[in-house]
Each structure stands twice: as structure tokens, then as C-alpha cells.
Amino acid sequence: DSGVTQTPKHLITATGQRVTLRCSPRSGDLSVYWYQQSLDQGLQFLIQYYNGEERAKGNILERFSAQQFPDLHSELNLSSLELGDSALYFCASSVRLTGGPSTDTQYFGPGTRLTVL
Amino acid sequence: AQTVTQSQPEMSVQEAETVTLSCTYDTSESDYYLFWYKQPPSRQMILVIRQEAYKQQNATENRFSVNFQKAAKSFSLKISDSQLGDAAMYFCAYRSGGGGSQGNLIFGKGTKLSVKP
Which residues does A contribute to its contact with B (CB < 8 Å)? Predict the structure, then answer.
């Protein structure tokens, strides 16, 4: 168990709909990363938040957005869903200010499998 | 831009034998980290081993070790005494250095490892 939690585990929805994926980082971790894993694109970085602020953006579509709340949990919002958005979405966390080495190592949650019909 | 290449889509090993998975990367940076992640059928991303580029000594974690050749930009993973539970997809990943608050992972396409009893 990495200590990172994601809900829901599975999500089935229709094209055009909007969904929200939730991530709780490891206790004390300040950074949250979102990744998308699909058969054709592999594992791709979407967006990173650090202590509530957006830090980096990757291949994230304009239809997608995210935020990190004061309690450090993060949500990834996907709207106007298309068939091609079906994928496994991972959240990862890192950067503890206190305790332990390897603050740069990212620990992954179990993922949310999104199916768009 | 940095890239990570895993040239072996699939590998197979006999139980108790040793196998080496290959990874090469391209970067102009001198400060970076390299990782191997394991993704079993459960889809959970599990950290196997990490290597800091500034360290000449190859990282080792129990039966897992790496051969880090910085000049050649090569980062192979050796699994000794292979076990059935080692069967999984293995991803090589790169992360830029520059402090713990930044730096998403860049993944290779993965190598599917099968372990034969």
C-alpha cells in the first residue's frame, strides 16, 4: 500500500458527460501528479500541483482541469468526455518536508479506470 | 525534450533464473533521477528501484539491481532469482533534477515480463 488513495476505482459514463476523480496523497506529501495510461499513448503526465498551486502541465487537454485543496487532496475534472478519454488515471504524490529520504520519489495510487461509452 | 526507450516489448525468464531489462534515455541534463516501476495485473504502479544520476554506485534492492551507464545513457534492470510474482509490466522512468518540488516522470513504453515455472 503506497499510502495514496484514489476514488472511485471504476467509473463508467457516456460521451459528453463530466466526471471528477479524487486523490488523497500520502500523509505529509505536498506534490500531487496526475497521469493518464492508455493503450495507444502509454503513461503520460497531465498536471502537477504543489501545496495548492499548479506547478507543471503536460499533455492535458483543455477539457480537463485539476485543483489541489488546502487539505492537499486533489481532484481531476474531465468534461465533454469522448471515447478516447477511456483510460486508467493515476495520481502520484511526493515531497515530504519532514522525515525520510527520497523526497523526489513519486508513489502512485491504485488508479481510477474510466470507461466512456 | 527527454525521452525514454525500452526496446524489449516482451521478455521471458525461467523461475529462479536471472533476467535483464533494457532502458536507454536521452537528455542534455546532468542532474536527474531514474526509476524502475513494476505494474502487475492489478495495475498498481509499484516502485522497484531508483538511481540518482550523480551517484556512480549502482542501486540495489534485494533481488533487483541496476546497471547505470551515464555516458551511454543506459539504465538496465537485473532481476535475480526470478519469482512468479515478478511477472508484470516494467516501466523505466526519468525525472529531471532541480529540487523535490518539481519534475514529472517520463516513462518508456514498458517491457512485459513473463516468468515460467
Answer: 2, 30-31, 33, 35, 42-45, 48, 50, 55-56, 58, 88, 90, 92, 94-95, 102-108, 110-111, 113
| A13-46 residue pLDDT tens | 999 999 999 999 999 888 999 999 998 889 999 9
| Number of domains comprising chain B | 1
CATH code assigned at B77:
2.60.40.10
CA distance A84 to chain B (A): 19
pLDDT digits (tens, 9 = 90+) for B45-96: 999 999 999 888 999 999 999 999 999 999 999 999 999 999 999 999 999 8
For residue B24, give its domain range.
Answer: 3-116
Q: Enter the C-alpha cell of residue B104.
A: 514529472
Phi and psi, residue A10, nearest 5°: -130, 145
